[in-house]
């Protein structure tokens, strides 16, 4: 067995296919002993890559992009989430919400795991010909704090993770979900696995390939099974979340393209690079091959096709 430690920026439902690959022995089939840690603060994932504690970091591709040509080179080799797991919560229950309603309003934006939440929402507005500067944002604060403030009356909208959003509106009859990004936010490589470029060797590439084979099996398994049939596993993985919320949201993710392939989407990558550049984290978008080595995922797909 080859030890393979993943240092992750969170424990999230959109990482479900990795958890399934672990629980169902798909990594062990590839002779990988996969372990996971979630350090706090989240940016300690970079320290764990640097000191060799971790073989890969799991998080936003905006980090390898931002660090390229400034601090250190990282290479993404696999994708776990193909959609943004965010939702916009609003007051009331009208069904006619449009993004054009946002200008002039105040949006509370959950922070804590980096810059991606605000970057994505502002990119989405811009893509819909809405000036992101036309709204007021309250961010850089803890998500729990902002959630309480929003329910107490602060702001017009609350942008948070989809699990929190669904649990919140289930408990508070005065709130509803305006938009779920997994359904209406488009393809984007939201969560990827990356490592230090300098650490890549033939043996590392082989481990990446085996990792992608197992991750692909995890994706396939989840897509083939209604969440109701494995709700006990979901409850074990996320004990603090109501099981019905987990089942409904998992099925929504299954149906709306959250999980597609270990290959980093070229279309989604190009789109996200423009969003990252618009947010000022990079001067201009990087070509796909500068940040992504899709070789292991393509090799894994070939093995899977032969099987």
TrEMBL record:
PANTHER family, per database record: 4-AMINO-5-HYDROXYMETHYL-2-METHYLPYRIMIDINE PHOSPHATE SYNTHASE THI11-RELATED
Give the lineage. Eukaryota, Fungi, Dikarya, Ascomycota, Pezizomycotina
Q: Does the keyword Kinase apply?
A: no
Identify which cofactors the protein needs according to its UniProt entry.
Fe cation
Q: Does the keyword Phosphoprotein apply?
A: no
Where's the SsuA/THI5-like domain? 15-228
Instruction: Summarize the protein's role.
Output: Responsible for the formation of the pyrimidine heterocycle in the thiamine biosynthesis pathway. Catalyzes the formation of hydroxymethylpyrimidine phosphate (HMP-P) from histidine and pyridoxal phosphate (PLP). The protein uses PLP and the active site histidine to form HMP-P, generating an inactive enzyme. The enzyme can only undergo a single turnover, which suggests it is a suicide enzyme.
InterPro entries given in the database record: NMT1/THI5, SsuA/THI5
Example GO molecular function term? metal ion binding
> From what organism does this protein derive?
Penicillium camemberti (strain FM 013)
Complexes and interactors: Homodimer.
Q: Which residues cross the membrane?
A: none
Which Pfam families does the UniProt entry name for this protein?
A: NMT1
Q: Which residues are the signal sequence here?
A: none
State the source organism's domain of life: Eukaryota
- Report the sequence similarity comment from the record: Belongs to the NMT1/THI5 family.
User: What is the recorded name of this protein?
Assistant: 4-amino-5-hydroxymethyl-2-methylpyrimidine phosphate synthase
Q: Which reaction does it catalyse?
A: N(6)-(pyridoxal phosphate)-L-lysyl-[4-amino-5-hydroxymethyl-2-methylpyrimidine phosphate synthase] + L-histidyl-[4-amino-5-hydroxymethyl-2-methylpyrimidine phosphate synthase] + 2 Fe(3+) + 4 H2O = L-lysyl-[4-amino-5-hydroxymethyl-2-methylpyrimidine phosphate synthase] + (2S)-2-amino-5-hydroxy-4-oxopentanoyl-[4-amino-5-hydroxymethyl-2-methylpyrimidine phosphate synthase] + 4-amino-2-methyl-5-(phosphooxymethyl)pyrimidine + 3-oxopropanoate + 2 Fe(2+) + 2 H(+)
Keywords, in A-Z order? Iron, Metal-binding, Pyridoxal phosphate, Thiamine biosynthesis, Transferase
Q: Which GO terms describe its biological process?
A: thiamine biosynthetic process; thiamine diphosphate biosynthetic process
């Amino acid at each position: 067995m080859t030890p393979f430690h993943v240092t992750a920026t969170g424990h999230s439902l959109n990482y479900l296919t990795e958890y399934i690959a672990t629980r169902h022995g798909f990594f062990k089939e590839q002779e990988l002993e996969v372990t996971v840690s979630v350090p706090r603060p989240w940016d300690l994932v970079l320290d764990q890559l640097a000191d060799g504690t971790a073989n890969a970091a799991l998080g936003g591709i905006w980090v390898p992009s931002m660090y390229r040509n400034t601090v250190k080179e990282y290479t993404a080799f696999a994708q776990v989430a193909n959609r943004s797991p965010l939702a916009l919560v609003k007051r009331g229950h009208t069904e006619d919400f449009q993004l054009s309603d946002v200008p002039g309003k105040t949006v509370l934006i959950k922070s804590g795991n980096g810059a991606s939440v605000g970057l994505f929402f502002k990119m989405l507005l811009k893509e819909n010909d809405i000036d992101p500067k036309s709204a007021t944002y309250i961010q850089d604060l803890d998500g729990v704090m902002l959630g309480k403030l929003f329910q107490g009356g602060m702001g017009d909208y609350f942008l948070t993770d989809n699990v929190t959003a669904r649990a919140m509106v289930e408990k508070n009859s005065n709130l509803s979900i305006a938009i779920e990004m997994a359904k209406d936010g488009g393809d984007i490589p939201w969560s990827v696995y990356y490592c230090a470029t300098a650490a890549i060797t033939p043996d590392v590439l082989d481990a990446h390939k085996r990792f992608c084979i197992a991750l692909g099996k995890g994706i396939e398994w989840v897509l083939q099974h209604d969440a109701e049939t494995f709700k006990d596993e979901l409850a074990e993985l996320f004990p603090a979340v109501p099981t019905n919320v987990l089942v409904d949201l998992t099925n929504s993710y299954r149906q709306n393209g959250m999980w597609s392939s270990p290959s980093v989407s070229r279309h989604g990558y190009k789109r996200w690079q423009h969003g990252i550049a618009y947010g000022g984290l990079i001067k201009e978008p990087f070509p796909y091959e500068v940040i992504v080595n899709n070789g292991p995922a393509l090799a894994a797909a070939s093995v899977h096709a032969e099987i």
